[in-house]
Amino acid sequence: MIEIRTSENLPDLTPRQEVCYKLRVNHSAMVALFVLLLLITGAILAPLIAPHDPYEQYTDTLLAPPYLAADSKSGFLLGTDDLGRDMFSRLLYGARYSLFLGFAIVVFSLVFGVMIGAIAGMKRGLTETVILRLMDIMLAVPAILLAIIIVAILGASLVNAALAVSIVLLPHFVRITRAAVIAEMNREYVLASQLDGSRGWRLFFQTILPNISAPLIVQATLSFSNAILDIAALGFLGLGAQPPIPEWGTLLSSSRELIEVAPWTVTLPGLAILVTVLASNILGDGLRDALDPKVDA
Amino acid sequence: MPGLALHWEISDDGLAYTFHLREKVSFHSTNYFTPSRHFNADDVLYSFNRQRDRTSPWYKVSGGVYKYYNDMGFNSLIRDVIKLDDYRIKIVLNNPDSPFLSNMAMDFASILSKEYADSVMQAGTPEKLDVKPIGTGPFMFVKYEKDAFIRYQAHPRYWRGRETLDKLVFAITVDPSVRYARLRAGECQVMAYPLPTDIKSMKKNPAINVDEQPGLNTAYWSFNIRKAPFDQLRVRQAMNYAINRQAILDVIYQGTGKIADSILPPAIWSWKAPDNVYVYNPDRAKKLLAEAGVAGDLEIDIWAMPVQRPYNPNARKMAELIQQDLSKVGIKANIVTYEWGTYLKKSREGEHQTILLGWTGDNGDPDNFFSPLLSCAAAETGNNRSFWCNREFDDLIALARIEQDQAKRKKLYRLAEVIFKQEAPWVTIAHAVRYQPYLKNVEGLKIDPFGGIYFSGVRLK
Amino acid sequence: MPQLLLRRLLLIVPGFLGITALTFFLIRLAPGDPILLLAGEHGVSAERYEELQHQFGFDRPLFIQFTDYLWQLLNGNLGTSVVTQTPVLEEFGNLFPATLELAVIAMIIATIIAIPAGVLAAVKRNTVIDHSITAVSLVGYSMPIFWWALLLILLFSVNLGWMPVAGRLNFIYDIQSVTGFMLIDTLLAGDQDAFFDALHHLVLPAIVLATIPLAVITRMTRSSMLEVLKQDYIRTARAKGLSEFSVIFKHALRNALIPVITVIGLQISILMTGAILTETIFSWPGIGKWILEAVYRRDYPVVQGGVLLIAGLVILVNTAVDLLYVVINPALRQPK
Predict the structure, then answer these.
(1) Do A57 and B324 make contact, defined as CB atoms within 8 angstroms?
(2) pLDDT attached to residue A3
């Protein structure tokens, strides 16, 4: 069920300006945005910033503690892992996997979810029922479990894990789009453009989509954080990225037994996941408040 | 060492073994079985025939696969098992075999109760033989819960006398750091397979003793010679030069253990430091690869087991080290892993290209390393993960099996080893040290050099 | 009302059918020969292979196989584990109480903390208290719980030694399994020490499993409370001079709880996801760990049957919650 309240516009602001304004005065959302931008910059510039090759094994400095630790003089800012690889460089390169994959997954589910949802919303009838039932089924299987099964079938790899997570996130987009399309179809502007002779997809892309972008943006931001969490969980279970890829969940799983000897190999990747997920959740909340769509999906 | 067999005679031609059995040995009496008679020759006959006789209804009960029985060559070695009287049994061999007595001491040759077998067969539940076992040992089975525990109780009529330990529980704990935490918390008293990274902290802990013993094991990296490019000798040799085993020893084994240059661990009597060893030399590896015509765009799979083994504390990490070494000679390596059972099965079927694996000696005889791992027969069963079958090598180890003279056997194994090194079906990686941590209130614990722990004779202070 | 009940129950049928089809065909899509997979570690001979192929009906068209499978399901046969040779339903029955016990304790923890916290945040809106509660629940909501579990183990089990590391009960206790619920079984056995030991083992995994529901319920309670506090009847109640306590707890909370109860019910899916991770880390012998191991072991009958059972459970609970929602909220007694 979707309603977009547009009545409370400040008189001299366009809707876009209003959103920007609301977002800008939301301090926590701005901080979250800043953190995310910082992470993205770090990930993109990883080859330039990283002090070491993330795969290079310095076998004479195994498990060096972080630089801040009292007994450290190793020169590895965040210490090394049990194969003597620089943790900072690995985390930085890991950000590339987590962020890029999170982004790719959201784009994938968004595009396919919107298409399927639009078909359901515009065609109605049997097509709609079948699509909705299928989505219900997918929602009934716990997300990680569904992802695990998909990975079990396709084989454990980063790409397959990403594919699995995108499939898991798909139903939300389908339901939002469908509900929005049905709501929009009855509005005057759509009826008007239908009289104009524009039909089907053209109608959808030109008139409906711009008007339902708000809930989709909010859902996309929240899906981004879910995607990062799920990818990390699959990595942790050994079903996602395979070593030596420094994806954060994989880093956690391969350091699990070192938690006592070298706690930083466990705490740092987890912290990286938490900060990223937290930042995108805060931003998602901020966007929701600013865009103010009533999303029920 | 005599157990159920009091003593034995070997015929002059080395073909017939007559075992005299101990009398008045009681089987376990539990809530699911009460024996009516003592152990006798019928039980021995039954225990062999269920693995030997393909027509026996028992042959299929345990899946029809007696891996050890076959890997030790018993299926082709044993011609006949004959009951002479209630306490004498004669085993006739097809050919003389030096390791035979050592092999007879292994777990697969344990004696089961024929009376129990008959009773479960009659009840229509023959599979109970495997899941609710009855034997003659110091502890008897009480309860098993999958992934949780196995409970045992002292066997009150054990022929060596009842154990002081009344109850014995194996708390199945897969994660080694959890095992250590449980030991420290006093939840359990003895811990299996500690992580090398934890040894230092264990030794510092005043409540914990750590015994150690040179392990009777070898970790190796095996190449499936049925798959390109490992059908090429030069490629296999190149691998031997490309791998920095010292780094592996430092990182994975935390500097404990020894670099393996031989198939055999130094604790085996026939071991002698080999002369022709591979020394880390990436340039030489590159040259060999170029000569083999595979330099440039070679991509290979390394299978690494998901579990910790006595010979290899962390195969996946080891694979990452190897991967890095290989990248330096221009090879891209992918690490592949499966759940342990699947891993063993798939590799037995030869699905792998290269695989990390290892072996712990079962009985201290050198043949126990050569025949099961590298013979042509083992290439057929798949236990020879290289599927490497070299006639010359095979003949030498077959001769060594028959030979009774230790010095001559030693020489034969040395010759075999030269061929093995030259043909390079493996990279021999390391021999791990066996560590045994336990709480200080445990007394009388003995490490079984063949892999397990002896709980017989253990007391709690 | 009965009509609605019937409608909802009828909707379950296509749901179950769909899930059955999904798991069945997904697993048939898996690369690898199902017979070799089913044969397990020992492999099979060529003649036995054909025998098995016939026995399992793999030589027949896929659709026929599917209807056969459905027929088996209707007869209550979910197949047999390849690894343990135990019927899937029996294994599920043995392990499910462990998961349920953990989940119930987790939900109790989550609810008794979350509802007061949410109410407090709403009442003290825009104060430091509200901001802290909101911030903490946001962190909880964003928590990778597998990492959180490791941190708690490191602190409470390893460093402080206050908590057991894993499992449901210390091995010195040998408790006869009657109900499968350790807390109940230890009481039935009359062993007080074992009961407290079982409780002790529950603490950390239950906290980990409770984390995300806790955050979600707190957020929901807060926003639902805020919504209710704006309503006219609350203003009226205040105007009548009722005490603030009575306004909040007698009038506001009662109405605010309606959507909260729904949210609590809908946590089942999150709990099942959490159970997979939590049980794996704490070696908790429940269905989450069971199904994950079945995936690792390629024990497809268990994966197939297990997913079906879990999904069926989720559908049932969700339907029950839907109905409950209608019962407590008469305004909604119209079919959608």
Answers:
(1) yes
(2) 40
| Burial class of residue B373 in the structure, from the number of CB atoms within 10 Å of its CB (0-12 exposed, 13-18 middle, 19+ buried) | buried
**pTM score of the predicted model:** 0.83
Sign of CA dihedral B239, B244, B250, B252: negative
| Amino acid letter, residue C294 | A
Spatial contact of A173 and A108, defined as CB atoms under 8 Å apart: no
- Cβ contacts of B143 on chain C, cutoff 8 Å: 174
Contact B251 A243 (CB under 8 A): no
Most B CBs within 10 A among C36, C41, C85, hence the mutation to make, goes to C41
Contact at CB, A140 and C311, closer than 8 angstroms: yes
User: Could A148 and C19 be called an inter-chain contact, meaning their C-beta atoms sit closer than 8 Å?
Assistant: no
Determine, for residues A273 and C310 on separate chains, whether the beta-carbon distance falls below 8 Å. Answer: no
User: pLDDT digit string (tens) for A174-227?
Assistant: 988 988 888 877 777 766 666 565 567 777 887 788 878 888 888 898 899 999
Task: Please judge whether A142 and C276 are an interchain contact, meaning their C-beta atoms are less than 8 angstroms apart.
Answer: yes
User: Within the 26-85 window of chain A, which residues sit less than 8 Å (CB to CB) from chain C?
Assistant: none
Q: How confident is the model at residue C336 (pLDDT cuts 50, 70, 90)?
A: very low
With beta carbons under 8 A apart, name residues in chain C contacting B175.
166, 283
Q: Which of A263, A224, A215, A22 is nearest to A109 (CA)?
A: A224
Name the CA radius of gyration of chain B, rounded.
Answer: 24
Mean pLDDT of the C9-30 span:
77
Size of interface A-C (CB pairs under 8 A): 124
What is the overall mean pLDDT for chain C?
Answer: 83
Question: Any CB–CB contact under 8 A between C298 and chain A?
Answer: yes
Provide the pLDDT for residue A295: 44
Name the residue facing C285 among B147, B174, B181 (closest C-beta): B147
Q: How far apart are CA A46 and CA A270, in angstroms?
A: 19
Q: From CA A188, how far away is CA A194, in angstroms rounded?
A: 10
Domains in chain B (CATH in brackets) are 5-127 (3.90.76.10), 217-433 (3.10.105.10)
Go through chain A and tell me how many residues it has: 297
Do the chains contact at C144 and A232, CB–CB below 8 Å?
yes
Helices and strands (H, E) in chain A, number of each type = 13, 0
| pLDDT value of position C335 | 43
Q: How far is A114 from chain B (nearest CA, A)?
A: 37
Residues paired with residue B259 on neighbouring β-strands, in sequence order: B430
* Residue B221 · residue B321 · CB < 8 Å: no
Q: Mind listing the pLDDT tens digit for each residue in C241-297?
A: 878 888 888 778 888 888 888 788 778 878 888 899 999 999 898 999 999 888 877
**Residues C296, B339: C-beta atoms closer than 8 Å:** yes
Question: Beta B298-303 vs B331-336: how paired, if at all?
Answer: parallel
In angstroms, the CA A109 to CA C90 distance is 38
Q: Suggest the residue from B200, B243, B251 to mutate for an interface test with chain A (most A CBs closer than 10 A).
A: B251
By C-alpha distance, the chain B residue nearest A257 is B177
Q: In this predicted model, what pLDDT tens digit does every residue of C213-238 receive, in sequence order?
A: 999 999 999 999 998 888 888 888 88
The residues, any chain, with a CB within 8 Å of residue B324's CB and separated by 6 or more, are A55, A56, A57, A83, A244
CATH code that applies to domain A36-45+68-291: 1.10.3720.10
In angstroms, how far is CA C102 from the centroid of its own chain?
A: 9
The torsion defined by the Cα of B178, B334, C34 and C311, in degrees rounded to 10, comes to 50
Instruction: Give the pLDDT score at C40.
Output: 44
Distance from CA of C161 to the nearest CA of B (A): 7
Taking contacts as CB-CB distances below 8 angstroms, the residues of chain A near B182 are none
Residues of C in contact with B145 (CB under 8 A): 285
**Residue C288 backbone phi and psi in degrees, to 5:** -65, -50
